[in-house]
Amino acid sequence: MIPNVISVLGGPQVFGARTAAHLDLLEEVERGLPVRAYEAVAEALELTPSEEDRLLQVSLRTRARWKKRARLDAATSDRLVRLARILALAVLVLESHEHAVAWLREPSPVLGGRSPLAAVASDPGAEKVSNMLYQMEHGVYA
């Protein structure tokens, strides 16, 4: 099974029904994801403003400017896809959105006491969290 990243990014409501089915995520990230994809992920993860700033590496002022634009820049889009990919994988492995969000917020000794959500702010952290989820999926406690 593969995680449904497009769905976490807002699916047909953000990309359109026809487009979401045949979406090239690489192309979308390079041109910048729709701002509504950011809103979908932030809502799905129940992010606070400070978490949004840290995870997406943007300021409150930048997020305020997004209201006037249709698309994010490529770098922010890339970070957003990383968050969406981790959430989609967590939902797949833990079998519910609620369990996935709770697990992502729980401090982990494997991550030096940080939560998986805090760790995914960097690519190496996201890789470690992905590995933890794959280990859980295959019966190895993480």
Describe the structure.
The protein has 142 residues and is mainly alpha-helical. It has one domain (5-137). It contains eleven helices and no strands. The longest helix has 21 residues, at 74-94. The radius of gyration is 15 Å and the shape is globular. The mean pLDDT is 90.
Structure, briefly:
The chain is mainly alpha-helical and 142 residues long. The chain contains eleven helices and no strands. The chain has one domain (5-137).
Write the layout of secondary structure elements.
Elements: H1 5-8, H2 11-15, H3 17-21, H4 25-31, H5 35-44, H6 49-56, H7 60-66, H8 74-94, H9 97-105, H10 116-119, H11 123-137
Helix pairs in contact: 4-8, 8-9, 8-11
Instruction: Give the N-to-C terminal Cα separation.
Output: 20 Å
Number of strands: 0
Structural class: mainly alpha
Number of domains: 1
Q: Gyration radius, to the nearest Å?
A: 15 Å
Order of helices and strands: HHHHHHHHHHH
**Estimated share of beta-strand residues:** under 5%
Q: With helices defined by DSSP (H or I, 4 residues minimum), what is the helix count?
A: 11
Which regions are unreliable across 5 or more consecutive residues at pLDDT < 50? none
Global outline: globular
Q: What's the rounded overall pLDDT mean?
A: 90
Major β-sheet annotation: none
- Helical content class: 55-70%
Highlighted features:
mainly alpha, 67% helix, globular
